[in-house]
What does this fold into?
Amino acid sequence: MNRKKFYEHALNILIYLVLFLVLLITIIPIGWVLSTSIKPTAEVFANPPRWIPLKPTLSNYNNVLFESSIPNAFKNSLLVGAMTTFIALLLGGSAGYAFARFSFRGSKVLSLFMLISQMLPLTVLMIPLYYMENEVGMVDTKLGLAVAHLVVSLPLVTWMAKGYFKGIPKEIEEAAIMDGCSTMQTIIKIVLPLLKPALAATGIYAFISSWNEFALANVLTRSPRSITVPIALNEFSSFFKVDWGSTMAAAMVITIPVIVVFMMVQKQFVEGLAAGAVKG
Amino acid sequence: MKNWKSMAKKAATGFFGAAVLTGIMGSAAAAEQTTIEWWTPNWDEVESREMAAEFEAENPDIKVDLVITDWDTYKSKITTAISAKNAPELFTILLTDVAPFAKKDLLEPLRELGSAASIDFDDILEPALTITSLDGEIYGVPFRYDGSGIYYNVDLLSAAGYDEFPTDWDEMVEMSKALTKDGVYAFAWPLGNQANAATRLVQQVYTYGGEILNEDETECLLNSDEAKKALNNIVSSIQEGYASPSSAEIDNTKMRDMFGSGQLAFNFTGPFEVDTLKADYPDLNFKTAVIPGDGGMGCTTANGWCVSMAKNSENKEAAAKFLAYITTPENQARLTDSFPASKTAVEYEQFASEELKPFTEQLNNSKAEPTYENWAEMEPIIYNYIQSAVAGSMTVDEACEAMAADINALLAW
It folds into this structure.
């Protein structure tokens, strides 16, 4: 018994050590970003490197918040992310439900075909997307970028939604219909409330993939009305030099809100991913 | 009461009439105004905005919209837009970017259009204009033209017993060995960046009198003795330890910061660093020199920036008028921290400082960066073999033979 407890303790210590190591690997780069963001230019490449600057400064944050396009790009990123998430959930959710509940000819082929777009490199899709959006005047608009981001997120959102819908016993829906609900009422009143964590996970996936996307935003946006944060970060890099202090300050400014939101909804996110993992 | 009503009616009619008239006049004025778009890089933003505002004040019938690009993404943005025939009227690109676009017939020929708008092509430095010309036609108006030189840390060289920078490569190697100590390296190579790395090899090849391709561009000459000497200079400096071991991961901008913070004793870069180094590293005591070579001054590759016009532009005359304005000698001088491409502007006092003199001298031994049709495909081949040789997985001979064989296969494709 004592030996068993000893092994349990040893295993726990080992697990915590590994977790601590993983935590360090995750935290150190973020810590270095924070440290660089408060360094004057002359200290950024000081040798030996210093965690705490000799002359800490907030001038990089002043530059990012009041003299750059980052705040505007942040707003654009939020709007583009929100549009992408909303459309992806609406269309991907509906398609996922159809794939999960209705059997129709070509259902399997179609659902597999959707994943093919995930296998194509973005650079291959870039020019056709640019041509199409250019034809309808959507280049350099937030909606145009959101539509382009759907190319990335919609197939996977559909697949995730299909898995979640399949995880709900059909009998629950049949019972609701027996009690007098229409199909739409069943979905809205019964199925969707059961899928809250799963929908949160799917929505977060769609939002984050839009928030971080660079390649499409690079060619589809050009003016302050549509550029997003990954593009705006380049503002601090010129032909002659890179303003590392401001780049790191901008990275902090755009990362912290996302981390806070993610921490608030991480329970739903993890539950949602687990739900999708049980039945696919 | 009736009078009041009548007056109100008249006033309303008058107001409505005035509003309609203003609207018509306004829309007529708006219809007459031509809007052109100029994509300009972020390091020229302030001057570009000033020039656009000045031009608009002088030409109320033309409105200039600016789109600010950056170094990392300007090329992909312009390539996509120009391929989709959605490019702006004018855009700032590297001189060596012009030929690939011109060969695909995506740029507007400027000799006649520009001359009609009073662009003085005779005032543009011949080497710069040559890079932006194809088959006798001009496809870009150069406004900046420069090559690399040396920046050296006076204090570090003095401590090692050197008052001046050597002009011979072997002397420089001897000095580099003396400079490398206490965590400070003599210099570095920007081998973490494909374009930067290829440019450095090309400079070395040119220094020894070599070439990248033969005259009719059908055979690669990177397996020549000159090219092997050139690659050996890069490889041996890193393997013998006087060039920074970080060379395999860094680019030109990182080298600049390493030099500024005293981790490198000297650095190869362009004249545009003079002012920014002074601003970012006020304690740095530096001077400039020409690049050492094989028994004398080495060769630098020269490049610069120009403004080109998209072939599918809608407002070519208005764009040419603005192009003429931004490339006057005075405005070229405003748009550059290094050297303008205008013969008149290059004589201005601002380009005659002590720090800039070696760069002027260096231009006497300079060649244009490669503008071969397949250069974009050749660069990654050259880059991979430089990396292999530096990593020690290939000898210099093997790397040069392999890069020539691969490029020959590419040319024969």
Chain B touches chain A at residues 39, 41-43, 67-68, 70-73, 76-77, 80-81, 83-84, 86, 183, 253, 256-258, 260-263, 272-273, 276, 280-283, 337 (CB under 8 Å). The longest strand of chain B covers residues 300-309.
